[in-house]
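yo

u said u wanted the structure for the complex thing, so here. seqs first:
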Amino acid sequence: MTEPVDARPRIVLGVGGGIAAYKACEVLRRLTESGHSVRVAPTEGALKFVGAATFEALSGQPVHADVFSDVPSVAHVKLGQEADLVVVAPATANLLAKAAHGLADDLLTNALLTARCPVLLVPAMHTEMWEHPATRANVALLRSRGVVVAEPASGRLTGKDTGKGRLPDPAEIVELARLLLERPDALPRDMEGLHVAISAGGTREPLDPVRFLGNRSSGRQGYALARVAAQRGARVTLVAAHTADLPAPAGVELERVGSAAELRDAMHWVGKDADVVVMAAAVADFRPVATTPHKIKKTDRDPDPVALTRNPDILAELVAARRARQVVVGFAAETGDDSTTVLEYGRAKLARKGCDWLVVNAVGDGKAFEVEDNGGWLLSANGGETPLPHGSKARLASALWDAVVSSLEV
Ligand code: CTP
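structre next:
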């Protein structure tokens, strides 16, 4: 009997010797559970933080750090050659330096030299090390060769320090890995110097201290837009209304809001000096006429506690306030009906809102809301209509950024 062929995408997960090595276990678990075959290549330093047995149990594959184990299989060459993606998380300053200069003194650094697939290095180190000119030069060199060196997150570091240099959330690392498997060229550094303002999530319009009118938006699409833009080098301000439990994207300024009125104020404020403004939030079209300061009783009927009034159209306002060369992007979630298709509704909405681009998603029947994937069309004010193939929300984000960046280059 012949062995069944393993058709799963093959990932080499390199693990550097930093305290964040323990988070690599969560990255590994998420990758294997989402259908990837993962070989872990830790450094000797990583094995001081996490034992090989842990990586072997979670990956179901043997784990070595040196090139003298399993010599007959020539692992130091094959590992990189056969990979569809190499992810290194955490990548220490030492590992970045070795990768930049082609040193190959263990299994992982050998795999980095033999890999011809996309390579994602996810740094984690103290802020001083990340900002040191040596590290900056190594990162620049690696990026110039097409290696994706992710932006670290900011926050608590080892000990009492806080600052830039934290490993991004494992869910975020897995999202970037999936994006590179879908589209190896999805994360060029072509948004440096751009400031983008993005709204995400669903607004909540309070009726009383306990209740609100809300919607099913999870915020995933807006977060994916922010994450991908930051990893492409943009300065990103994310104005987040209510979302599912999502990790804050690394390298992004995050401002939380609640109601449509708060979102409106925040978007006008950050939109003032942004080059690109994206309204991915699901904004309530109506709000209660009044918010009752006490909890509404079922006997409270006069005045009607759910009487509604119209909210302003924030996207239309941002279009009206648009500066020269500022790009404004809207989203349209449509279901279509007997007389009008999703695309026809999208075209009409683009004309009505006056924005430069409109992403049209079909919703309903489990599509778009509260799910991982998305698809639809990208309509442009000059009549362009590009289908957005069904894929991850990060992939849709990178297609939108491609279009926006090329329109700014013209
Ligand atoms: N939007 C907005 N302000 C609102 C409502 C929507 O800025 N009060 C923005 C959304 O963020 C999105 C776009 O407008 O970018 C389209 O939102 P959508 O809910 O699809 O459209 P509506 O304007 O509500 O139009 P309709 O109810 O006719 O579908």
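The CA atoms of residues 241 and 257 lie 5 Å apart. The chain has a mean pLDDT of 94.
cya
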